[in-house]
Amino acid sequence: MNKEITDELMVKWVDHKLTATEQAELEVILLEDSELAGELSAMRSVKAKIQKEIPASVEPPYPDFFNNQLMRKVMLDQVSRLPKEKAKRWWKSLQWAWAPAGAMALVLAFLAGQRLGQGGESITRPVATSSLTSVYFSEDSLNAEIIPDAEGDVSAIIVTGLSAISDDASFAEIKKGELPVSYQRAEAKRFH
Amino acid sequence: MKPLLIVTFLCFINVSFGDDPGKDKIGSLRVEMIFATNEDGDRAGPRGKVTPEAQVMAMKEIEPLRFKYYRTLGVENPEILRSYESWATPLRPSKEMLISFEPLKREGRGRIQMALAYWQSKRKLFQTNPTLVKGKSLYLLGPEWRGGRLIIQVELLELTE
Fold first, then answer.
1. Per-residue pLDDT tens for A110-137?
2. What are the start-end ranges of the H helices in chain B?
């Protein structure tokens, strides 16, 4: 049989893409040529080894950091739209009941006034900015708590799980090989 | 001929980098390393200076940053470049602990969101993206050292309009 056709069939066999006719054709060839059968089996074993060593897909660096950011923004966007839609539905459902709604509003206004008079400490403030801040860690053992201030800006990030600095470290000198590669690169760019 | 080409190429690189608007200074930070402890402030050693009272009061307002003694170990005021990563080395000359930062976006007057990363012993341990506000401090509670904790105070000093 033509060698090109045989090669094509062999490649398709390795990739499990043979049609029924091609499969039958190849089986006839293999019965006639035992050497070819060995070659085919070797090809499949090489493919299996390669698949085992190389992952099908490679994760981008810091995927959870970016995914996290994206999800938070989507969530905030949804939340920011929600009140408008809710307000529309409310408006429609209360068209038949102006009087009870008005009465309820008066009661709520009275209660809110009372709470303000007591200092207003329980009034929650928006924390939009801090809710967009996230922390990505290079190790699973690390964790952090983000503390916002009264205006919702981040005022502190409390990191736990960092390994302690040796008590012998006096920070008086630069140790050999202490600089991260990206620091050196950034400094080189800055001065050239 | 070869050296002439090399010189011309280097001049071209220099000119093109000189015009790079990404290297424009758009502001500056104040990055300070503080040692906080409940045991003995003098354990910070000779480079530890007593932290000003106003700073101490501000830190004591945040519960996890409440300690008895505070010592300032070093301060640096690095520039913020428009679109390049910059570094703060508050423990100069040591570079055991570093902060790298890069602007992400402006969020109105005196506000800028930054990509901020903490490096210890050549390794990036965490990164975050807070919005820094002119006149407000951001505190990062860092690792333990000599019976206390190291606190990194980051403040947006100036930001061009």
1. 666 555 444 333 333 333 444 467 888 8
2. 2-18, 53-60
> Does residue A46 carry a pLDDT above 80?
yes
Tokens of B67: 């300690």
B86-107 tens-digit pLDDT: 999 999 888 889 999 999 999 8
Q: Which of A132, A136, A169 sits opposite B127 (nearest CB)?
A: A136
Of B122, B141, B150, Cβ closest to residue A179? B122
Number of folded domains that form chain B = 1
The pair phi, psi for residue B51, each rounded to 5°, is: -75, 135
How far apart, in whole angstroms, are the C-alpha atoms of residue B82 and residue B99? 17
Cβ-based neighbours of B156, under 8 Å, separated by 6 or more: B27, B29, B110, B112, B132, B133, B134, B135, B136
Residues 17-46, chain A, touching B (beta carbon < 8 A) = none
Residue that is written with structure tokens 């090669």 in the block? A7
- Domain membership flag for residue B92: yes
Does residue B99 fall inside a structural domain? yes
What ipTM goes with this model?
A: 0.85
Q: At what angle do helices A20-32 and A34-53 cross, to 10 degrees?
A: 120
Convert A89-116 to b/e letters by CB count within 10 Å (16 or more is b): eeeeeeeeeeeeeeeeeeeeeeeeeeee
- Residue range(s) defining the domain that contains residue B30: 21-159
Q: What digits encode the pLDDT tens for the residues B15-37?
A: 455 578 888 899 999 999 999 99
B80, pLDDT greater than 60: yes
**Min distance B29 CA to chain A CA atoms (Å):** 15
Q: How many Cα atoms are found within 13 Å in the side-chain-facing hemisphere of B143?
A: 19
Residue of B nearest to A180 (CA): B122
Distance (Å, rounded) from C-alpha B76 to C-alpha B101? 13
Q: How large is the average pLDDT for residues B143-157?
A: 96
